[in-house]
Amino acid sequence: MTDEEIRSTVLRLLSDIAPEADLASIEPNVNIRDQLDIDSMDFLNFVIAVDKELHVDIPERDYPKLATLDACMVYLSERLKAAGRARPTD
Amino acid sequence: MAIQHVPLIRPERGHALALLREMLRIRRFEEKTAELYQMGKIRGFLHLYDGEEAVAVGAIRVLTPEDAIVATYREHGQALVRGLPMGCLMAEMYGKGNGCSRGRGGSMHFFDVAHRFYGGHGIVGSGLAFAVGLALADKLRDEKRVTACLFGDGAVAEGIFHESLNLAALWKLPVLFLCENNLYAMGTGIERALSETDIALKARSYAIPAEVVDGMDVLAVEAATIRAADAVRHGKGPVFLEARTYRFRGHSMADPQLYRSKEEVAEWMKRDPITNFEERLRDWGLLSDSDVRDMEGSISAEIDAAVAFAEAGPWEPVEDLTRYVTSR
Amino acid sequence: MLKMTYREAVRSALREALRNDPRVFIMGEDVGRYGGYYAVTHGLLEEFGPERIRDTPLSEAAYVGAGIGAAVNGMRPIVEVTTINFSLLALDQILNSAATIRYMSGGQLNIPLVVRMATGAGRQLAAQHSHSLEGWYAHIPGISVLTPATVADARGLLLAALNEPDPVFIFEHATLYPLEGEVDEDTGPAKIGEATVRRAGDQVTLVTYGGSLGKTMEAAGQLADEGIEAEVIDLRSLRPLDMATILASVEKTHRAVVVDEAWRTGSFAGEVGAQIMEGGFDLLDWPVQRVCSAEVPMPYAKHLEEAALPQAGTIVQVVKEMFQ
Amino acid sequence: MAEFRMPILGADMKAGKLVAWRKHPGDEVHRGDIIADVETDKAVIEVEAFVDGVLERTLVEPGETVPVGTILAIIRLEGEPALAEMPAGPPAEAGAPIVARPPAVPLQPPVRLRVPEAGGVRISPLARNLAARLGVDIATVTGSGPGGRIQQRDIEQAAAAMARPAPAAPSEEVPDRQMRMRQAIAAAMARSHRDIPHFHLFTTIDMSRTLTWLASENETRSVADRLLYAILLIKAVACALREVPELNAIWVEDKVVLKPDVHVGMAIVLRGGGLVAPALHHTDRQSLDGLMHDFRDLVQRARAGSLRSSELSDPTITITNLGEQGVEAVFGLIYPPQVALVGFGKIVERPWSVDGQIMSRPLMTATLAADHRALDGFRGSVFLATIDRLLQEPDKL
Question: Is the ipTM of this structure higher than 0.90?
Answer without folding.
Answer: no
